[in-house]
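Subject: Protein entry, chain in single-letter code together with its fold tokens

Area: Proteins and the way their chains fold up in space.

Attached in line: The record itself begins immediately under this heading.
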Amino acid sequence: MTDSNPVDALESGEDLNARVWALSARAESVLNTHARTRGLTASLPHADTSPLRIALLGPYSAGKSMLIAALLRLPQVAVDELVDAAPKTQEPTPYEWSGVTLVDLPGTLSGNEEHSGAARRGVRDADALMIVTTSELPGEAETRAILQALDADGFADRSVVVINKMNAENSDRGVIIDEIRKRLGTFASRVPIVPTDARDYVDATNDPDLTAAHRELLVAESGIDTLAAELQRIIAPGVSGIRPKAQAYELLRVLADAEEKWVLDGEELDAAETAKEVEESISQVERSVLSTLERESDVVASKLNAAGTKLAAGVSEKDGIVAVDVARAVQEELVHASIEFDAKYSSSVRTAFDALAAEYGTGVPEPEAWVNDLDTPETTIDAPPDDESPLAREVREAAAKAAKAGVRTMTELIGKVAAGGGERGSTASDIANWLNKNRVSQKLLDPRGKMTNGVGKFKPWGQGKAANKVVGAADKAQWALAVMGPLLDVTSIMQDQRKWMAVSKRRKAIRDGFDEEARGQRTSLMDAGRRHLSEWITEVEQSLSGRTKQGVEINAEREIALEAITSLREAAEKLVGPAD
């Protein structure tokens, strides 16, 4: 296998550099938009051609300073100055070596949080790592720190693991290396593991009493020359080949810090949670009402389709006319469907109001009464039109006769209101009074006891409301007649020589007409119901804005910021992804 072309690698590094800096510039603009994250912009990557930085990461007393002394070939006096009483290194300390900068980081796991924090900052500023442990093997905490550096921090291909103090008594080199590999897991095949003993190397190079052969043996067994060779291999691609990837990972870490800045607490958290709770409560009742609206609109449409099927089946093969009793039964079914829709939709809105009022008190506004604005025709049927069909006339007369004879259902009574017979308000009032004369019909008129004080008695304002209810129901009867009228108002087809085909055509026209009406009414009900609900929800939101204003602003600001940060993070993750 031939090595990759250095020119290609250089061009690739330069391209990655340009993309990292461009993304860093975008991140600076995003982070500068809010005081929470403005202070992080100083940590963003920028153009940097300084020598590569190899940081030494490891616990206190692992011998990092002695390793530096060995790599630098320091004389004994300088070694003593470098490695005297510990923990001495409190801040990252740089040393120039072979064209790069070795950075001695404060020891971790010493119980000194300042040292651990400084070590963490040093890792973030590094281009490569020398991860130092000892022949005593890393414990759980140290192993987690090593794996974080290799995985989340992205140093797996820019690190060497050093097992120092390897020549201590009772150290089995093979066993120790195997154990280190187990702790590294999947990274064991990607990270070189170098056993060393920096103290032996320093002693060998500074003890004048050693023979050349003995000195050569100690130097070879110390592993320092092997370590130096591995470090040279890692830094071979140079600044342009290593730093862009390091900076891309640092950009990811800065963005993670930015996300942390948007973790709320205290009063802000309380305000944001309150706003979310109110928003969810409103959303929940809105979903519930919309579910009822959709379900009951489907029911109305289904009943219209069923009505069309029933009327079509009722077309006489003899004269092409639908029997009056069939037509009146269909009318009553449609009136019931419309009234039932009103009741269930109104009930769902009332339930939604009750739920919000129970949670947020009297500040929740009551919804306006629902008015089913089905497409009731502009023209009324108070008086028969000149061209009234025989069927329409029969239905009208049947309703009037039913009212005089003592009706059995409210829909028969309201047929009288729809048919006219004097002032509608007066007629409706008479019907309301009649309904309130016995317990069964009183329950039909006022099932929740809001207008009446028992049989034969109205609340002070109840009779007017009851009359209005009857008038409203009468509108449904008028609507039902209007739906049926155009489809049923036909002349006899007896003279048609192809009578059966005409009857079939008539039946299909009725079914198709009611099917079209069903779709239109479903759409009409859904649109009207949504408008009614939306108007009330807007009032609720306004009435509760005092509770939610601060939290809504915080949540909106936070959402916008996190969305922008997430977009940047996704772009940065592509930069640090594996090469194709």
In short: The longest strand covers residues 128-134.
